[in-house]
Please model this.
Amino acid sequence: MKGDNRMKKITLLNLILVILLSGCANAETSQPTNANEPDQVSEPTQPAPVGETQEPAFQDRVTLTPGTDGALTIEEHPMLGRESVEDVLSMYEDEPWFNFTGVPSRLTIGEDVYSYFIEEEPVEEGVGDQTPNLPNLILQKNDQRVMSIPLGELSTTSPFWAFVASEGDWYLELYREAGSVDNNGQEIPGGGNILMNGESLNTLYGYDEAFGLHLVSGLPFYFFSRDGSYGYVYQGVETPLDYSNISHYGCCTAGLANPRGSEDRVVIFANKGDQRYLVMIGDFEE
Model:
């Protein structure tokens, strides 16, 4: 009788041990689940990191200031630090302002033809230690010389940037790498200058520089800098701009950021401090 009780106890202990071992095995082994089972629980979606947002496309990052009281419309696109001038321009390859246009050497106003060329006086032969003569711009009206303008030392950057006519007046944009002296002995500073019918706009209006000459809706438009500040002139009216720098007169790769334009706008790359922008200024509505 005692033996039977002992056997029953051993059998019961073995049964409990088997059950315990089976539970451990089930806990350690992942079991396949049926996605269609009603008690199936999906993994929770991980939230996006706090503060991380998706930047809008470049052309959607825009501030538009409509033109009022004679001012032109200004459209600004801020550039991210990783975006280069080449990256930005590649988005506008089909725009009429994308390509630079050449500078003509002749234009017609009424019955008169205006033209220009560079003339450099030759060094006298047989005389040693001579400094080469600096070149002059010769302006002609109907093939007759009317002006001679010193250009100073030429560089890899072209001295001629625009030659246009509007409402009976002609405008010529010149660039000098360094200062020079005119025929009256007056010093001419380097940088950009625009001549209107032969008169310097820098001298007339006290500009440090005038540049980016273009016809917008057939009327002259240009940028100027004065006392460290920038602005533009359209229809004879000055409008200040709050940029700390406007790219212009760049050479080679840097030249991609030079001002360019079409019939209704001028396009520039400009800075407000460390923030760079693609800017369109013109007679247009978006």
Summary: Helices lie at 2-28, 85-89, 201-205. The chain has one domain: 58-119+134-282.
